[in-house]
Amino acid sequence: MEIKVAKHAGFCFGVKKAIEIAEEVAKNNDKTYVYGQLVHNEKVISDLEKKGIIFVDNINDVPQNAVTVLRAHGEPGTTYQILEKKLITKGKNLNDATCPLVTLVHNVAIKLKSNGYEVILFGKRNHPEAIGTSYHLKGNDTFIVEEPEQYRVVFDYITENKFEKVAIVSQTTMSVYGYQKLIENINSLLGNEKFEEISLSLRNLDKKYGFVDTICNPTKQRQSDTDELARESEIVIVIGGKNSSNSKELYAKCREFGVESYFIQSQEQLQKEWFSGKEKIGVTAGASTPDYLIDEVVERIREITS
After folding, report:
1. Could you tell me if 201 and 244 are in contact, meaning their C-beta atoms sit under 8 angstroms apart?
2. What topology does CATH give the domain 101-211?
3. Which residues have CB under 8 Å from 171's CB, separation 6+?
4. Which of 43, 74, 98, 142 could serve as 132's disulfide partner, Cβ 3.0–4.6 Å?
5. Boundaries of CATH 3.40.50.11270 in the chain?
6. What is the dihedral sign for C-alpha 250, 256, 261, 265?
7. What is the DSSP letter of 61?
8. How far apart are CA 137 and CA 119, in angstroms?
9. What is the pTM of this model?
10. For residue range 34-86, what is the model confidence (pLDDT) as tens digits?
11. Does the domain spanning 2-10+217-305 belong to CATH 3.40.1010.20?
12. Active-site residue set
């Protein structure tokens, strides 16, 4: 029996940085508040709670003048405004753990909008990153497309509104293949003018229709590695938080390849019968999954298959 772990599995640098910020702040303060899940992994949240960090799902539950950390997924401007009224500001008691690659998407969206583009977001509507990016566009009225199969709705939105310029950007954790497919599907309905790629430098903003590749490199690496793993394995175990968008994409990718796959949060969920007759076992994990969880899953697989 062979167990192969994907080369790029587990924490990305943005998640590592967010956790480091939260732990450092908590070490130096009696009480530290985090709005929302710092990262989308239940075990990581539980570990941080044991270090005295208090997580709140409602911004109004953050006390006045409290030491606060903002999650890695980015926040809309309204979050900062509410915190400012609570006397929580950067440079004083607000520690921003927003991933720089998410901030990059915000900046791209802002520049596209300021250059006359109607900006469409490929992302998950209720995901905190998509909510944060939408703030810089049209807020709740931002057009969000969640699946490449919804391309006709995008086409209708563009043609019915007769926008002069349209650009599409993506949430950092979406499917690379799905984003490509969305663009291809929309282009199949358009006439002579098609969606063309606009580089991240945004140097050429003269295109009528353009898309920017804002899926982050850690997401691309994990999806590419999972492609390889799915081809070589009889079964793939995907480890990730229940709300982790990038982990769900890894699981979906395995299913697309037709390989038997299971999406778990920890080794306790492994079942012996999954591995009956299997010789090649693949293990991968989303960007918010700590190394120790991966190690525990691998060790448990060895135990129940020995």
Report:
1. no
2. Cobalt-precorrin-4 Transmethylase; domain 1 (3.40.1010)
3. 105, 121, 122, 123, 124, 127, 129, 130, 133, 214, 215, 245
4. 74
5. 13-98
6. positive
7. G
8. 7
9. 0.92
10. 999 999 999 999 999 999 999 999 999 999 999 999 999 999 999 999 999 99
11. yes
12. 129
